[in-house]
Predict the 3D structure of the following.
Amino acid sequence: GENVEQHPSTLSVQEGDSAVIKCTYSDSASNYFPWYKQELGKRPQLIIDIRSNVGEKKDQRIAVTLNKTAKHFSLHITETQPEDSAVYFCAASKGSNYQLIWGAGTKLIIKP
Amino acid sequence: NAGVTQTPKFRVLKTGQSMTLLCAQDMNHEYMYWYRQDPGMGLRLIHYSVGEGTTAKGEVPDGYNVSRLKKQNFLLGLESAAPSQTSVYFCASQGQGNSYEQYFGPGTRLTVT
């Protein structure tokens, strides 16, 4: 079955710098790749997603890139701010039942 | 709209006890999911439903049962709780159509002693 690996498990960056989180997936049939943000004690919330027919997608300070050949996708956050501190999860899915397989998460720490 | 709600928010069980977690959504979503979240392991799918009256197993279904008698509700049951089921449980829902976004409830923190 599908397996999603996420790196790093913890990322500490200076406020204003960029952060990059990477995920790899194993099933070449996967075609949907969302990123969720979970603040401490809160529920996960979708921040951006990409489908396999697109290589890159941007939304203000966040972007996601997808390399189908290498089977990996990345989350890029520019000009990081204190409110970006959270755990970020990647996931992958295929088919019509929308089952998501999740990465283990990355704790992003923004240093003032 | 309340979105996705879960009851209870917290619960402590003794080994062998049973309980039911309730998830309710008011967005008329077809798809509903139950996940468990353990430290360092992300979210793992327990069971899911693609419509009223239907359920299916996810990655980690053992020890859990579910029912979807009404479209807006998805119940997760633990028949005989074990310490390994100590976790935070999240319910999520998703509509049909072009958006695949899953909307999560606030979670239930369950401790089994």
About this structure: Chain A has a mean pLDDT of 94. The radius of gyration of chain A is 13 Å. DSSP finds no helices and eleven strands in chain A.
